[in-house]
Amino acid sequence: MTDLRTAVIYYSATGSVYAMAQAAAKAAEHAGSEVRLRKVRELAPEQAIAGNEGWAAHAAQTQDVPEATLDDLEWADLLVVGAPTRFGLPAAQLKQFLDTTGPLWGEGKLVNKAATSFTSAATAHGGQETTITALNNTFYHWGCLIVPPGYADPIQFQAGNPYGSSHTSNNGTTPPGQVELDAVAFQARRAVQVAQALKTGLAAA
Protein backbone atom coordinates (compact mmCIF):
# COMPACT_ATOMS: atom_id res chain seq x y z
CA MET A 1 0.00 0.00 0.00
CA THR A 2 1.01 3.59 -0.65
CA ASP A 3 -0.21 6.57 1.37
CA LEU A 4 -2.21 7.80 -1.64
CA ARG A 5 -5.93 8.54 -1.33
CA THR A 6 -8.23 8.43 -4.35
CA ALA A 7 -11.81 9.69 -4.65
CA VAL A 8 -13.77 8.25 -7.59
CA ILE A 9 -16.74 10.57 -7.97
CA TYR A 10 -19.38 9.98 -10.62
CA TYR A 11 -22.93 10.40 -11.81
CA SER A 12 -24.73 7.63 -13.67
CA ALA A 13 -28.36 7.37 -14.72
CA THR A 14 -28.60 3.86 -16.13
CA GLY A 15 -25.28 2.30 -15.16
CA SER A 16 -22.66 2.85 -17.86
CA VAL A 17 -20.64 5.44 -15.94
CA TYR A 18 -21.14 3.47 -12.73
CA ALA A 19 -19.56 0.38 -14.31
CA MET A 20 -16.60 2.47 -15.41
CA ALA A 21 -16.32 4.09 -11.97
CA GLN A 22 -16.27 0.66 -10.35
CA ALA A 23 -13.48 -0.47 -12.69
CA ALA A 24 -11.50 2.70 -11.96
CA ALA A 25 -11.94 2.29 -8.19
CA LYS A 26 -10.88 -1.35 -8.28
CA ALA A 27 -7.82 -0.57 -10.39
CA ALA A 28 -6.77 2.31 -8.12
CA GLU A 29 -7.12 0.07 -5.09
CA HIS A 30 -5.07 -2.67 -6.73
CA ALA A 31 -2.43 -0.04 -7.53
CA GLY A 32 -2.07 0.58 -3.81
CA SER A 33 -4.35 3.55 -3.17
CA GLU A 34 -7.01 3.90 -0.53
CA VAL A 35 -10.24 4.57 -2.44
CA ARG A 36 -13.61 6.17 -1.86
CA LEU A 37 -16.28 5.49 -4.50
CA ARG A 38 -18.95 8.18 -4.36
CA LYS A 39 -21.99 9.10 -6.45
CA VAL A 40 -23.28 12.66 -6.63
CA ARG A 41 -26.80 13.57 -5.58
CA GLU A 42 -29.61 12.90 -8.04
CA LEU A 43 -31.46 16.03 -9.16
CA ALA A 44 -34.15 14.51 -11.38
CA PRO A 45 -37.69 14.19 -9.93
CA GLU A 46 -38.74 10.75 -8.76
CA GLN A 47 -41.51 10.68 -11.36
CA ALA A 48 -39.01 11.02 -14.19
CA ILE A 49 -36.82 8.26 -12.76
CA ALA A 50 -39.77 5.93 -12.21
CA GLY A 51 -40.88 6.46 -15.81
CA ASN A 52 -37.63 5.01 -17.19
CA GLU A 53 -37.17 1.32 -16.37
CA GLY A 54 -33.39 1.36 -16.69
CA TRP A 55 -33.01 4.54 -14.66
CA ALA A 56 -35.25 3.24 -11.87
CA ALA A 57 -33.44 -0.10 -11.77
CA HIS A 58 -30.05 1.56 -11.53
CA ALA A 59 -31.22 3.94 -8.80
CA ALA A 60 -32.36 0.94 -6.75
CA GLN A 61 -29.15 -0.97 -7.48
CA THR A 62 -26.91 1.85 -6.24
CA GLN A 63 -29.02 3.19 -3.37
CA ASP A 64 -26.33 2.17 -0.88
CA VAL A 65 -23.45 3.94 -2.65
CA PRO A 66 -22.51 6.94 -0.45
CA GLU A 67 -23.09 10.41 -1.85
CA ALA A 68 -20.08 12.62 -2.53
CA THR A 69 -19.29 15.46 -0.15
CA LEU A 70 -16.74 18.25 -0.16
CA ASP A 71 -14.83 16.26 2.46
CA ASP A 72 -14.18 13.56 -0.15
CA LEU A 73 -12.49 16.12 -2.40
CA GLU A 74 -10.41 17.57 0.41
CA TRP A 75 -9.41 14.09 1.64
CA ALA A 76 -8.19 12.83 -1.73
CA ASP A 77 -4.81 13.23 -3.38
CA LEU A 78 -6.26 11.97 -6.68
CA LEU A 79 -9.67 12.82 -8.15
CA VAL A 80 -11.18 10.46 -10.73
CA VAL A 81 -14.38 12.04 -12.03
CA GLY A 82 -16.94 10.57 -14.43
CA ALA A 83 -20.23 11.74 -15.91
CA PRO A 84 -22.48 10.99 -18.86
CA THR A 85 -22.49 13.39 -21.77
CA ARG A 86 -25.45 15.75 -22.05
CA PHE A 87 -25.29 17.80 -25.25
CA GLY A 88 -21.49 17.62 -25.17
CA LEU A 89 -21.25 18.68 -21.52
CA PRO A 90 -21.15 16.82 -18.18
CA ALA A 91 -24.56 15.83 -16.82
CA ALA A 92 -26.14 18.50 -14.61
CA GLN A 93 -25.99 16.30 -11.52
CA LEU A 94 -22.19 16.14 -11.64
CA LYS A 95 -21.89 19.80 -12.63
CA GLN A 96 -24.07 20.85 -9.70
CA PHE A 97 -21.74 19.07 -7.30
CA LEU A 98 -18.71 20.77 -8.86
CA ASP A 99 -20.49 24.11 -8.45
CA THR A 100 -20.57 23.61 -4.67
CA THR A 101 -16.77 23.49 -4.40
CA GLY A 102 -16.25 27.25 -4.13
CA PRO A 103 -15.31 27.14 -0.42
CA LEU A 104 -12.56 24.56 -1.05
CA TRP A 105 -11.36 26.47 -4.11
CA GLY A 106 -11.32 29.73 -2.18
CA GLU A 107 -9.12 28.22 0.53
CA GLY A 108 -6.76 26.60 -1.98
CA LYS A 109 -7.55 23.12 -0.71
CA LEU A 110 -7.78 21.58 -4.19
CA VAL A 111 -4.43 22.90 -5.43
CA ASN A 112 -1.80 20.33 -6.51
CA LYS A 113 -4.14 17.37 -6.52
CA ALA A 114 -4.00 15.06 -9.53
CA ALA A 115 -7.21 14.68 -11.53
CA THR A 116 -8.51 12.65 -14.45
CA SER A 117 -11.94 12.22 -16.04
CA PHE A 118 -14.07 9.81 -18.10
CA THR A 119 -17.50 9.70 -19.73
CA SER A 120 -20.18 7.79 -21.61
CA ALA A 121 -22.51 9.01 -24.37
CA ALA A 122 -25.54 7.56 -26.10
CA THR A 123 -24.09 7.82 -29.60
CA ALA A 124 -20.74 7.82 -31.34
CA HIS A 125 -19.39 11.38 -31.64
CA GLY A 126 -21.99 12.38 -29.06
CA GLY A 127 -19.67 14.67 -27.13
CA GLN A 128 -17.32 12.30 -25.34
CA GLU A 129 -14.22 14.45 -25.85
CA THR A 130 -15.93 17.77 -25.13
CA THR A 131 -17.39 16.39 -21.91
CA ILE A 132 -13.95 15.28 -20.73
CA THR A 133 -12.35 18.59 -21.62
CA ALA A 134 -15.23 20.44 -19.93
CA LEU A 135 -14.56 18.49 -16.74
CA ASN A 136 -10.89 19.31 -17.09
CA ASN A 137 -11.74 23.02 -17.23
CA THR A 138 -12.84 22.75 -13.60
CA PHE A 139 -9.57 21.07 -12.69
CA TYR A 140 -7.64 23.98 -14.22
CA HIS A 141 -9.49 26.39 -11.94
CA TRP A 142 -8.81 24.24 -8.91
CA GLY A 143 -5.08 24.13 -9.68
CA CYS A 144 -5.00 20.37 -10.23
CA LEU A 145 -2.54 18.53 -12.43
CA ILE A 146 -4.53 16.69 -15.11
CA VAL A 147 -3.47 13.12 -15.90
CA PRO A 148 -4.72 11.98 -19.33
CA PRO A 149 -4.33 8.35 -20.43
CA GLY A 150 -2.75 9.41 -23.72
CA TYR A 151 -1.51 6.45 -25.73
CA ALA A 152 0.66 5.22 -22.86
CA ASP A 153 -0.64 1.64 -22.98
CA PRO A 154 -1.64 -0.75 -25.81
CA ILE A 155 -5.27 -0.68 -24.63
CA GLN A 156 -5.43 2.94 -25.71
CA PHE A 157 -4.94 1.99 -29.34
CA GLN A 158 -8.13 -0.07 -29.02
CA ALA A 159 -10.07 2.44 -26.93
CA GLY A 160 -8.88 5.37 -29.02
CA ASN A 161 -9.47 8.29 -26.66
CA PRO A 162 -6.32 9.96 -25.28
CA TYR A 163 -8.32 12.58 -23.37
CA GLY A 164 -9.96 10.08 -21.03
CA SER A 165 -11.83 6.80 -21.18
CA SER A 166 -15.17 6.91 -22.96
CA HIS A 167 -18.01 4.61 -23.90
CA THR A 168 -20.82 4.64 -26.46
CA SER A 169 -23.99 3.11 -25.02
CA ASN A 170 -26.03 3.09 -28.26
CA ASN A 171 -28.92 4.82 -26.52
CA GLY A 172 -28.52 2.77 -23.38
CA THR A 173 -28.57 -0.66 -25.03
CA THR A 174 -24.85 -1.46 -24.79
CA PRO A 175 -23.01 -1.57 -21.45
CA PRO A 176 -19.27 -0.89 -21.29
CA GLY A 177 -17.31 -3.78 -22.76
CA GLN A 178 -13.94 -5.17 -21.78
CA VAL A 179 -12.04 -2.63 -23.86
CA GLU A 180 -13.73 0.30 -22.13
CA LEU A 181 -13.30 -1.23 -18.68
CA ASP A 182 -9.66 -2.08 -19.32
CA ALA A 183 -9.07 1.44 -20.62
CA VAL A 184 -10.52 3.15 -17.56
CA ALA A 185 -8.61 0.72 -15.32
CA PHE A 186 -5.38 1.68 -17.06
CA GLN A 187 -6.28 5.36 -16.74
CA ALA A 188 -6.80 4.93 -12.99
CA ARG A 189 -3.54 3.02 -12.53
CA ARG A 190 -1.61 5.66 -14.46
CA ALA A 191 -3.25 8.42 -12.45
CA VAL A 192 -2.33 6.69 -9.17
CA GLN A 193 1.28 6.39 -10.29
CA VAL A 194 1.50 10.05 -11.30
CA ALA A 195 -0.36 11.24 -8.21
CA GLN A 196 1.95 9.30 -5.92
CA ALA A 197 5.02 10.76 -7.63
CA LEU A 198 3.49 14.23 -7.32
CA LYS A 199 2.67 13.77 -3.63
CA THR A 200 6.14 12.38 -2.86
CA GLY A 201 7.85 15.14 -4.79
CA LEU A 202 5.86 17.91 -3.12
CA ALA A 203 6.56 16.46 0.32
CA ALA A 204 10.28 16.41 -0.43
CA ALA A 205 10.40 19.93 -1.89
TrEMBL record:
The lineage of its organism: Bacteria, Bacillati, Actinomycetota, Actinomycetes, Pseudonocardiales. Residues 6-191 form the Flavodoxin-like domain. This is NAD(P)H:quinone oxidoreductase. The keyword Transport does not apply. Belongs to the WrbA family. The keyword Oxidoreductase applies. InterPro entries: Flavodoxin/NO_synth (IPR008254), Flavoprotein-like_sf (IPR029039), Flavoprotein_WrbA-like (IPR010089), FMN_Rdtase-like_dom (IPR005025). SUPFAM superfamilies: Flavoproteins. It comes from the Bacteria. GO terms for molecular function: NAD(P)H dehydrogenase (quinone) activity. PROSITE patterns: FLAVODOXIN_LIKE. It holds the Pfam family FMN_red. Keywords: Oxidoreductase. It is an enzyme of class 1 (oxidoreductase). Its EC number is 1.6.5.2.
